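Listing S7. Sequence submitted for prediction.
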Amino acid sequence: MASGFCYIMTNRPRGVLYVGVTSNLPRRAYEHRMGLLDGFTSRYALTRLVHYEQYPLIVDAIQREKTLKRWTRAWKIALIERDNPGWADLYDQLL
């Protein structure tokens, strides 16, 4: 079974948040940045990758995504700011 990533995208610091999961984070982040995915992320221009976690199994990443989606907004913001206090776009770290 493949590894997976749970990630959070936003449009600006403390802006709209989107929690997702993928097996290929560089590709998925690029798709979000370029507006190639229809739906919530393109509607709100969520192009900034501000948090991600890698898991050895995709099922673990899916479980983490489900957990984060149940979290309050304040908890998600605290998670982002713990490791990325400036809300920097982490996309370049992936390349």
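Caption to Listing S7: primary sequence and predicted structure tokens for the chain studied. The chain has a mean pLDDT of 96. Residues 58-70 form the longest helix (13 residues).
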